From TrEMBL:
<feature type="region of interest" description="Disordered">
    <location>
        <begin position="1"/>
        <end position="23"/>
    </location>
</feature>
<dbReference type="GO" id="GO:0043565">
    <property type="term" value="F:sequence-specific DNA binding"/>
</dbReference>
<dbReference type="InterPro" id="IPR037923">
    <property type="entry name" value="HTH-like"/>
</dbReference>
<dbReference type="InterPro" id="IPR020449">
    <property type="entry name" value="Tscrpt_reg_AraC-type_HTH"/>
</dbReference>
<dbReference type="InterPro" id="IPR009057">
    <property type="entry name" value="Homeodomain-like_sf"/>
</dbReference>
<dbReference type="InterPro" id="IPR018062">
    <property type="entry name" value="HTH_AraC-typ_CS"/>
</dbReference>
<keyword id="KW-0804">Transcription</keyword>
<keyword id="KW-0238">DNA-binding</keyword>
<dbReference type="Pfam" id="PF12833">
    <property type="entry name" value="HTH_18"/>
</dbReference>
<protein>
    <submittedName>
        <fullName>Transcriptional regulator, AraC family</fullName>
    </submittedName>
</protein>
<dbReference type="InterPro" id="IPR018060">
    <property type="entry name" value="HTH_AraC"/>
</dbReference>
<dbReference type="GO" id="GO:0003700">
    <property type="term" value="F:DNA-binding transcription factor activity"/>
</dbReference>
<keyword id="KW-0805">Transcription regulation</keyword>
<feature type="domain" description="HTH araC/xylS-type">
    <location>
        <begin position="212"/>
        <end position="311"/>
    </location>
</feature>
<keyword id="KW-0010">Activator</keyword>
<dbReference type="InterPro" id="IPR050204">
    <property type="entry name" value="AraC_XylS_family_regulators"/>
</dbReference>
């Protein structure tokens, strides 16, 4: 049974039993997530919620991960400390952070001074699928997915573009740029709520929660050369055989093949959109050696990374 205590506007953090996966529990978590999306939109409009916008930077080596599109973090309660190549940012209750695309970061989370547990909402759109999940502290200092919804919806493309625009505008405090960034984020939150409530949209191609969550886990660890089906299974609370079987039944392809394809798609994006050296692209895509990356890329795309970049690279700003 879902456990919720004192869920009032002045006590926004939902106290839940993470092991309760019943339909009633999921419905309640969905309601809580939507309420928080609305609360953050209203707070941004009124200027009562702070929006952190770390400066974009090139892909760097170090602890953590990055995404090819921006992420939006909404801190419901507790705190999140983001480690970045150029420093740290701590986000407290009621604050939001917009993570630029391709910015390496790692997260540490914790309980607030008043005892409220860590909870945040993460919004991500890759142009095709929009995901929104409620996170909790699944291990000491580490965030984990408590509840996730994904939608194939036109708002995914709009959300990705608006978040990219918001991350790109200047960072002068209380200036027109700040208002522009807030307005764009507010538009994203409205679009997310619309997509989640649109009964005609496809819920991530009808995927079960296990597989939708698995895709997020993969994207968060794609740059780790030690990522494996076994590790993903441990994080998903099942055996490797079961996870592989469920993924093949749902997605129509082997999980290992999907991992490799995601790495190749990331490599293509980085080769086309950045001036990273091939060995740096290999590292960013989870390959322990540049030579293995080159062989894999040639087998997938039919030419070496250097040759592929020569015909596909876009102008790098």
């Amino acid at each position: 049974m879902l456990k919720i205590l004192d869920h009032r506007p002045d006590c926004p953090a939902p106290h839940v039993d993470p092991d309760d996966h019943s339909p009633a529990a999921r419905a309640e978590l969905g309601r809580v997530m939507r309420e928080q999306l609305a609360a953050f939109a209203e707070g941004l409009a009124q200027g009562t919620r702070r929006l952190h916008r770390p400066a974009p930077a090139g892909v760097a080596r170090g602890e953590g991960h990055f995404h090819l599109a921006p992420e939006l973090f909404l801190q419901v309660s507790g705190w999140t400390r983001f480690g970045l190549p150029h420093g740290e940012v701590t986000v407290g209750p009621g604050e939001a952070l917009l993570m630029p695309a391709r910015l390496l970061h790692h997260e540490a989370v914790g309980v607030a001074a008043d005892g409220e547990p860590f909870r945040n909402i993460v919004v991500y759109a890759d142009g095709r699928v929009l995901t929104c999940h409620l996170a909790h502290e699944h291990a000491a200092g580490e965030p984990g997915i408590l509840f996730l919804e994904a939608r194939q919806h036109p708002q995914a493309g709009r959300a990705q573009a608006w978040l990219a625009d918001a991350a790109a505008v200047g960072d002068e405090p209380h200036a027109a740029e700040e208002q522009q960034a807030r307005a764009l984020v507010m538009a994203v939150l409205a679009g997310v709520r619309r997509a989640l409530d649109d009964v005609t949209s496809a819920p991530s191609a009808g995927e079960p929660p296990l597989i939708a969550r698995l895709r997020v886990l993969i994207q968060n660890q794609l740059g780790d050369h030690e990522l494996s089906v076994r590790r993903l299974a441990e994080q998903s609370g099942c055996s490797a055989d079961h996870l592989s079987h469920r993924f093949r039944l749902t997605a129509g392809e082997h999980l290992v093949a999907y991992l490799n394809r995601q790495r190749m798609e990331r490599a293509a994006h980085l080769l086309a959109d950045t001036d990273l050296a091939v060995k740096e692209v290999a590292w960013a895509c989870g390959f322990a050696s540049a030579s293995y990356f080159i062989r894999t890329f040639r087998a997938h795309h039919g030419e070496t990374p250097v040759a592929w970049r020569g015909t596909h690279q876009r102008q790098v700003a």
